[in-house]
Structures are given as structure tokens and as C-alpha cells.
């Protein structure tokens, strides 16, 4: 009797510890969104806010990686289910890209810009970072909570709202990012692999900026870096 009671206590404590980490990560993602919104509205404090956010996440990930083996795989950095996930995002991505390019050609008379080939790799890396934070650490943790059960559709809805809140500077971005968050959350909860989502996010995002918004983020990035070097 004492053995089973002790076993139950250890299992309960283990569950509570896991949920504690999950709740910490969920809260950290929410605070990151708040920090980003502050970042957008306080130009003079941008460097400090960005440094704090980056330092926190880098430090946290390093510490968790050291203290918990196999965590990266659980977070979605794995080969498992890559093939079915990449097929799903490839089909949807191809449809979106065709639609975006068609829209750009008709609405803006957009033309192919070679800078998009330079921007896509960076967008894939940045997309993987965003997918990790919002889809894995936020949506994934909400789904994994053991003491609280949340409906999958509610998780998808909350994640979509939170993710699109980062892109309120442009109405078109809000719409597109809401859809991407909904789609990516469903795919992640099914396959638990971030790599296809990072590729999807990066390629579709780059095409959207160059064709739908008729902007050149690569040129803007180079100009920004050059101006900081020269000042």
C-alpha cells in the first residue's frame, strides 16, 4: 500500500514538474509578444528590448538542452514524420505561391527580383525560429498539458490570434499570418516536426513580400546594415 502511494506521489510530482515547465514556456511566449508590441511602439528602446528577448530565449534553450536530454526531438527538431509533413505543406505552399504570384502580377505588375533567392534562406531560418516559439512552445505545450485539457481547435484559434498580433502593421499580413498559424498548428500537432513548417513559412513569406506587398526586404536589410556601419 505504501509502495503504490509513493509511486502515485512520484508520478504526480513528475506531472506537475512537466506542466510547470510548459506553463513557464507558454507564459514566456505570451510575454515575447507583449515585448514585440512594445518594441514596435518605442523606437528609442528597440535595441534594449530586442537584446532582452534574444538573451532570454538563447539562455533558456541552452539551459533546457543541458538539463533535459531528447528535448529538441520533442520540440520538433527531428527527422520523424518529415516526409508526410513536407508533402502536406508542399501542396498547400504551391497553391499559395501560385495565388500570391498571380495577385502580384495582376495588382502590382510585379516582376521577378533576384533578391528573393537571397532572402528565402534567411526567411526559412527566421520562419523556423517563429514556428519553434509559437507553434512548438506555445501550441505544443498547450496540447501537452497533463492537468489541463484544452480542445485542439481552441489551441489553434489562440495560437493564430497570438501569431497574427505580431503583424498588425499590415492588414494583408494579419490575414496571411492567421491562416499560416492555423495551418501550421494543425500540421505540427499531427506530425511534430518543425523543419517542413520552417521551409513553408520561409518560402511563402518571401514570395508574399516580393509579389503581394511589392517590397524588397533583402535590399532593406542591406541598406540598414550599411547605414549602421557608416554611422
List the keywords.
mainly alpha, globular, 0% strand
Give a written overview of the molecule.
The protein has two domains: 1-69; 76-231, no CATH class. It has helices at residues 2-41, 46-67, 71-75, 82-107, 115-144, 152-164, 171-191, 195-212, 217-230. The longest helix has 40 residues, at 2-41. By secondary structure, the protein is an all-alpha fold. The radius of gyration is 20 Å and the shape is globular. It contains nine helices and no strands. Helix 4 runs antiparallel to helix 7, helix 5 (115-144) packs across helix 6 (152-164) and helix 6 runs antiparallel to helix 7 (171-191).
Give the SSE layout.
Blueprint: H1 2-41, H2 46-67, H3 71-75, H4 82-107, H5 115-144, H6 152-164, H7 171-191, H8 195-212, H9 217-230
Helix pairs in contact: 1-2, 1-5, 4-7, 4-8, 5-6, 5-7, 5-8, 6-7
What is the overall shape? globular
N→C terminal distance: 73 Å
What number is the mean pLDDT? 85
Strand content: under 5%
Specify Rg, calculated over alpha carbons: 20 Å
**Which class best fits the helix and strand makeup?**
mainly alpha
Helix content: over 70%
Outline:
This protein has 231 residues and is mainly alpha-helical. It has helices spanning 2-41, 46-67, 71-75, 82-107, 115-144, 152-164, 171-191, 195-212, 217-230. It has two domains: 1-69; 76-231, no CATH class.
Amino acid at each position: 500500500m505504501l509502495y503504490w502511494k509513493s509511486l502515485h506521489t512520484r508520478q504526480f510530482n513528475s506531472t506537475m514538474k512537466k506542466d510547470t515547465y510548459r506553463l513557464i514556456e507558454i507564459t514566456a511566449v505570451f510575454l515575447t509578444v507583449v515585448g514585440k508590441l512594445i518594441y514596435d511602439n518605442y523606437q528609442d528602446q528597440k535595441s534594449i528590448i530586442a537584446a532582452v528577448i534574444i538573451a532570454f530565449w538563447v539562455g533558456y534553450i541552452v539551459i533546457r538542452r543541458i538539463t533535459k536530454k531528447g528535448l529538441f526531438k520533442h520540440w520538433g527538431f527531428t527527422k520523424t514524420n518529415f516526409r508526410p509533413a513536407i508533402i502536406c505543406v508542399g501542396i498547400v505552399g504551391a497553391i499559395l505561391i501560385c495565388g500570391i504570384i498571380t495577385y502580384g502580377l495582376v495588382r502590382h505588375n510585379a516582376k521577378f527580383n533576384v533578391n528573393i533567392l537571397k532572402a528565402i534562406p534567411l526567411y526559412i531560418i527566421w520562419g523556423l525560429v517563429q514556428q519553434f516559439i509559437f507553434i512548438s512552445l506555445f501550441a505544443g505545450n498547450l496540447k501537452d498539458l497533463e492537468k489541463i485539457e484544452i480542445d485542439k481547435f481552441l489551441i489553434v484559434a489562440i495560437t493564430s490570434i497570438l501569431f497574427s498580433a505580431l503583424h498588425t502593421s499590415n492588414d494583408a499580413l494579419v490575414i496571411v499570418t492567421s491562416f499560416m498559424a492555423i495551418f501550421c498548428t494543425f500540421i505540427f500537432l499531427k506530425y511534430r516536426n518543425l523543419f517542413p513548417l520552417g521551409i513553408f513559412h520561409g518560402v511563402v513569406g518571401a514570395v508574399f513580400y516580393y509579389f503581394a506587398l511589392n517590397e524588397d526586404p533583402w535590399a532593406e536589410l542591406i541598406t540598414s546594415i550599411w547605414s549602421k556601419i557608416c554611422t
